[in-house]
Amino acid sequence: MVARWFVLPLAGALAIAVPAEGRAQGSSGAKAGPDSTWLKWNPTTKTVTFKLVAGIPGRAKSPFNFNGYTDGELTLTVPAGSTVVMNFVNDDGTPHSAQVIPDARPIPNMALDEPAIPRAYSKAAGEGIAQFGTDVLRFKATPAGNYLVFCGVPGHGLSGMWIRFKISADLQAPTMTEARTN
Ligand SMILES: [Cu+2]
Asked: Structure pTM?
């Protein structure tokens, strides 16, 4: 994969360039890619650290988004066997949660009784965490396969509040890619 440089416009007319992996949608490249600061990798401990933000304003089609993405527009792929630490924070006024579920359709209306991977869910998965609340999802990335991270508050997943999460046996380091649909 080719690393590209995206210019992320920030508040107050300040702009910085950050490296980002992924595909820019459209020919202009005007849309920013994933924020590289969300993802960290420790190859010694094989630990993936990911900042999972519910309800980033501005970038997404609706406040029911993760990191500004809806409907699977963002894919986080991690090496099989790695330890995943998702630092979840809800930036939105509406309560949100996060749960790793199988990549299946239809998207569930609400949180499943059990996540697809043990411990891969935030507290209050069905009710959500209030604005600026946080939780840490810490789990082992196994087995390899395709999953979703979705919000378990009733109706939110169906409204597009889900991203893709993949566990790959072939990967040496985690990646973030985007595929904007709007
Ligand atoms: Cu939600």
From this structure: 0.82
